[in-house]
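Dear Dr. K.,

Following up on our conversation at the group meeting, I've run the structure prediction for M23 family metallopeptidase from Streptomyces sp. NBC_00180. I'm pasting the input sequence below exactly as I used it, so you can double-check it against your construct before we proceed with anything downstream. Let me know if the numbering doesn't match what you have in your notebook.
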Amino acid sequence: MCSYRRRLLVAPALLCVLVGLVARPADAAGDGKGTSGHNGTGTGGDSTLSAQVLKLYEDAAVATGRYEAGRKRAEVQRAKALRVEALLDRERREIGVMHKDLGRIARAQYRNGGGVPLTAQIILATSPEQLMRGQHVFSQANLAVANSIEKSRRAEVRLAGDEAKAAAAWQVLEKRNAELADLKEGIEDKLEEARWELQGKADVSVAAGSCPGAVRLDQKETDSTSAWVTPVARYELSAAFGSGGKRWAKRHTGQDFAVPIGTPVRAVGDGRVVKVACAGAFGMEVVVRHTDGYYTQYAHLASVAVDQDERVDTGQWIGQSGTTGNSTGPHLHFEVRVTPELGSGVDPVPWLSERGAPLG
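The predicted structure tokens came back this morning:
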């Protein structure tokens, strides 16, 4: 079957479920080999469900992006409203100072003859110059009072209007963001339901010891030139290679990636599928032989998107993560081996890093 490079689906970190760490329990008798399923393309129900999970991931990513963008806009508008309110408070203090100045102007006006009627000023004036000085002071005082009152009025009107606009815009954004949050929550609820339905079907297949066949995932072509990538796009690292614990007979043989059920799992490099199995400790698993002779294993899957002996390209989706087999929670168990069999593993972290795909 022809293979091609495909574009990655990035699930938002907000949707990731940081859950159980596991690979092979101490008392597990099986080695994860199980039986290989080569039943061609998966059933219509399986394909539809896998596609539904991927579509919901896309919808959730879009909803999350819109929600975050709206939240940031609301924060900007909130900050603007607070700045305008601070300016208004400052203007109110300045207006208070103006009012005090008006009092001082009025008192000075009275002391300089502003309170004396114009007729009396004419009668009492000892010279034309004295009369003119009195009138000049009176006019200047009136002008100052009028200017102060008008400035105060304009400032109050302008800032009050700005404050009302900023507050109204903030409230609109807050309302819109609440609607986006509800939409996001609804999509996530549907995603969680579909995710566990996918897992349930996978558990049935593993219990029967037979894979249902490749469930093809609609992945668009990509022009990526990277020779190697990480097995999942977004993740949290959990159990590391060589770590100990009751869950494993000896030591942990791979690197675990904590990701939700249904997360697209991709081939880390070009190669050929040498094993597709759906039984044993590893549950649903895929093993790929790469062009440099190394093998990589992808275990505890909820669906498989490739068939045995199929060629795969770097970044091509080969399945969806899950929690099949001996697993205590959703995660991808990833191994790098010298041979296709268990027991020949090397540490995946430096192996990927040497190939330009370091784990974050």
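Two things stood out to me. DSSP finds four helices and ten strands in the chain. The two ends are 33 Å apart (CA to CA).

Best regards,
J.T.
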